[in-house]
Design goal:
Layout (H helix, E strand, L loop, with lengths): L6 H12 L16 H16 L3 E4 L5 E5 L8 E5 L13 H16 L8 E5 L13 H6 L5 H5 L9 H7 L15 E7 L4 H5 L3 E7 L1 E10 L3 E2 L11 H19 L4 E10 L5 E2 L2 E10 L2 H21 L3 E10 L2 E2 L2 H13 L4 E6 L5 H4 L5 E6 L15 H19 L4
Bound molecules: zinc ion.
Length: about 400
């Protein structure tokens, strides 16, 4: 008997998990290491044990359940997260973990013995909504982030990460960097509008775009809006405005996949009739190609310097975050495409616009992701939605690719 996804069982687990931390108007709030996160973890561990998995918890609170294979080497790992932002949806992260459990259930139903072991994992604090940075659990697991530094992180509510982790009972003993999977797979909602808009059902994710955040601080001179001649102004606000326009021009000139966003601008003193003395502006640049991203950064920085000089202002630039683009494993991306075509599901290769746990694994083991459509492209929103048949289709592709990677026991 070939293992089969039981769609109803997958949907029920998603619903049951979605009741933990459910918000009155729909959606869910399970901020990392909150009481609701603990309740979600307890439920997950219960399900893993029910499915016969051996549960492990590491020192950053990552949870994984292992199903043995005929061989005792590194497992194929299916992972994502069950923490959410404060106004999260039911499927961001949860789908990847619940579909992982469903793959195990399908293998169990079919009494399938695989060559490799299979692990299903939920990584701590992927969202970074309460404790920065995001992708913390997977980052520590794969050695990109330092465990003791992360345990000392203060949350937006003043709580300390390590204390909260111990409080909810998920400070495990396994040290990070001890497990490199044979391969890593993550099924996730797209969190963008492309698949729905183009009527494509499966995204074969080729990688995660690089991210560069820069904060510019500009100082000029505040002065009277009526009496100061235009040629004598040192207007920090005007410099910030030119930077914002330049960011858009860079995205337009470079073309897709380059994007540029000015998400925050503040002026001081911020009054209607005063030339701003100080301005702080942030620019978020993203591209799948690191060379192009570096070109975009260089053009933005050079332009910002020129704009400040033109206006007689001082400017400083500070990098707030930078992640190089990540490329997923070509062979597994091709397997995702092949699996979708075999099931007559339309499929497209695409980069991920958002960060995901999978990117922490990509440098260390063959990794890929599967996307399913997000209604209206909405995510990090209580109205986040993916149709049941799309959730099930994604799980079926996850099963097919997992079986391929796990191999049959001899
Ligand atoms: Zn997510």
């Amino acid at each position: 008997m070939k293992p089969q996804i039981n769609g109803e069982r997958l949907l029920k687990r998603l619903r049951d998990l979605g009741e933990i931390g459910a918000l009155p108007g729909g959606g869910v709030c399970r901020l990392a290491l909150s009481d609701d996160d603990r309740a979600g973890r307890d439920q997950l561990v219960h399900w893993m044990e029910e499915l016969g998995l051996t549960v492990s918890i590491d020192a950053i609170g990552n949870i994984w359940g292992l199903r043995e294979g005929a061989e005792c080497g590194a497992p194929v790992m299916i992972g994502s997260h069950i923490d959410t932002v404060a106004t999260g949806g039911l499927y961001d992260g949860a789908l990847g973990v619940m579909a992982g459990l469903e793959v195990v259930a399908a293998l169990n139903d079919a009494r399938a013995r695989t060559a490799r072991p299979l692990a299903v994992a939920a990584f701590t604090n992927e969202e970074g909504a309460r404790f920065a940075p995001d992708m913390m659990g997977s980052g520590v697991h794969q050695g990109a982030l330092d465990l003791s530094e992360m345990l000392a992180v203060q949350g937006i509510d003043g709580a300390t990460f390590g204390e909260e982790l111990a409080r909810i009972g998920y400070a495990g003993e396994i040290q990070p960097k001890t497990l490199t999977p044979a391969a890593f797979l993550e099924l996730h909602i797209e969190q963008g509008p492309v698949l729905e808009r183009d009527g494509v059902r499966i995204g074969a994710v080729t990688g995660v775009q690089g991210i560069s955040w820069t904060e510019f601080k500009i100082s000029g001179q505040s002065n009277h809006a009526g009496t100061t001649p235009m040629d004598l102004r040192r207007d920090a606000g005007f410099v910030a405005a030119r930077i914002a326009v330049e960011a858009r021009a860079i995205a337009t000139d470079f073309g897709p996949p380059q994007v540029a966003t000015v998400g925050s601008v503040t002026f001081e003193p911020g009054l209607v009739n005063v030339v701003p003395e100080r301005a702080v502006i942030t620019v978020d640049l993203r591209n799948t190609d690191d060379e192009r991203l570096k070109e975009a950064e260089a053009r933005l920085n050079a332009a910002a310097q020129t704009f400040a000089e033109d206006e007689g202002c001082k400017i400083t630039a500070r990098s707030l975050a930078r992640f190089a683009p990540v490329a997923f494993d070509e062979a597994i991306v091709a397997k995702v495409e092949t699996a979708a075509m075999a099931r007559q599901l339309s499929v497209r290769r695409m980069p991920s616009g958002a960060g995901h746990d999978a990117q922490m694994f990509a440098p260390n083991c063959p990794t890929a992701m599967i996307f399913v459509p997000s209604a209206g492209g909405l995510s990090h929103n209580i109205a986040e939605h993916t149709e049941p048949e799309e959730l099930i289709a994604g799980a079926e592709i996850l099963l097919d690719v997992s079986l391929d990677l796990l191999g049959e026991a001899q």
